[in-house]
């Protein structure tokens, strides 16, 4: 799996049990502590994922990230394939 999709999977894992996972926000620090990539590489992943329509990035006091329906479905389907 490409590294950017590991970042997407991290976001998915953080929100998958929320009532509305695509409305949940993930703070950048939550991603950083769960990955072994440097922050500049994570930023690159997030920008690529955003260009693919898989996440939204909003700059508040810190960046917050939310997974899109498309991103959620993509990772959920990969989980289903891997579980089979």
SSE blueprint:
Blueprint: H1 3-15, E1 26-27, H2 28-32, H3 39-51, E2 55-59, E3 63-67, H4 69-83
Antiparallel strand pairs: 1-3, 2-3
Helix pairs in contact: 1-3, 1-4
CATH architecture: Orthogonal Bundle
Strand order of the largest sheet: 1-3-2
The number of E-state strands comes to: 3
Strand content: 5-15%
CATH topology, by name, is Arc Repressor Mutant, subunit A
CATH class: Mainly Alpha
Label the structural class: alpha+beta
Main pleated sheet? 3 strands, antiparallel
Overall mean pLDDT score? 91
- The oligomeric state of the chains shown is single chain
Task: Determine the fraction of residues in helical runs and give it as a percent range.
Answer: 40-55%
Termini gap: 17 Å
| Count of DSSP-assigned helices | 4
- The H/E string reads HEHHEEH
Total count of domains = 1
Q: Compute the gyration radius: what is it?
A: 12 Å
Instruction: Output the CATH homologous superfamily.
Output: Winged helix-like DNA-binding domain superfamily/Winged helix DNA-binding domain
Main features:
84 residues, alpha+beta, Arc Repressor Mutant, subunit A, three-stranded antiparallel sheet, 4 helices, 3 strands, 55% helix
